[in-house]
Amino acid sequence: MNNLEWSKAEKQVARRAYDLAYEKECRAIRAKVEQMLEADDNIRQIWRIHDYLSKERRETDRKYDYRYSVLIFVFAKLINEGWITEADLSGLGADKTQRIKALVGFEHEDEVNS
Amino acid sequence: MNNLEWSKAEKQVARRAYDLAYEKECRAIRAKVEQMLEADDNIRQIWRIHDYLSKERRETDRKYDYRYSVLIFVFAKLINEGWITEADLSGLGADKTQRIKALVGFEHEDEVNS
After folding, report:
1. What count of CB pairs under 8 Å joins A to B?
2. Does A108 score more than 70 pLDDT?
3. Which of A39, A94, B8, B37 lies deepest, with the highest CB count within 10 Å?
4. Which residues of chain A make contact with B27, given a CB cutoff of 8 A?
5. How far apart are the first and last CA of chain B?
6. CB–CB of A53 and B43 under 8 A?
7. pLDDT at A110 over 90
8. Which runs of consecutive H residues, i.e. helices, occur in chain A?
């Protein structure tokens, strides 16, 4: 997707959607940690929380990649996982939204078949 | 300290003191995590908590070593750090308590001079 040109306005839309997804995901991780603390008073629970945060950190570090060359794939994944909707990307050109939609369908089909 | 013999009763005292220290330290770590969650609503706070837990896990994994050959050093460190007191080791023979006391004083002096 290196051939796509991003206008200044599109970059703003992309940044906002990306930041929104990251914030929502971090808040969900935080809520899960709070829930784990409430759910179990066992002293080893802090190490289960550490394992959980290590996993989430690896996954979010891999997922959130703001290079324009991969952003189409990133947005498709974020939509599939429910962190953003297509409406959050309103303002992107059809060259981008069509590619994202195609990937969303493809990834979704892949998940259904797996 | 490989030359020390541990009686069955001493092993019970040692195990209880060791478990007590570990539980107190884990509870302190948990309290710190809860305090960090309360103190800062920033979305990146979960990664600061992850960093903190990673550090504590490394340190506790290194510190809590229940081999009888190193237990004297472990108890001296746990006393110096305040997780147990000499009273928690009541029941150990003088061959062990004297070595622990000597190490407690030595480590403490070392900290004062450093």
Report:
1. 51
2. no
3. B37
4. 43
5. 26
6. no
7. no
8. 8-39, 45-63, 71-80, 94-113
Each residue's pLDDT tens digit, B20-44: 999 999 999 999 999 999 999 899 9
Q: Does A50 touch chain B (CB under 8 A)?
A: yes
Interface test with A, best of B43, B58, B60 (most A CBs within 10 A): B43
How far is Cα B51 from Cα B84, in angstroms, rounded to an integer? 26
User: For residue A105, what pLDDT is reported?
Assistant: 81
Which of B34, B43, B56 lies at the smallest CB-CB distance from A23?
Answer: B43
Q: Does B33 touch chain A (CB under 8 A)?
A: yes
CA–CA dist A92, A5 (Å, integer): 11
Burial class (CB in 10 A: 0-12, 13-18, 19+), B109: exposed
Q: What percent of chain A has pLDDT over 70?
A: 91
Non-local (6+) Cβ contacts of A64 within 8 A are A18, A21, A22, A74
Minimum-distance CB partner of A53 among B37, B49, B56: B49
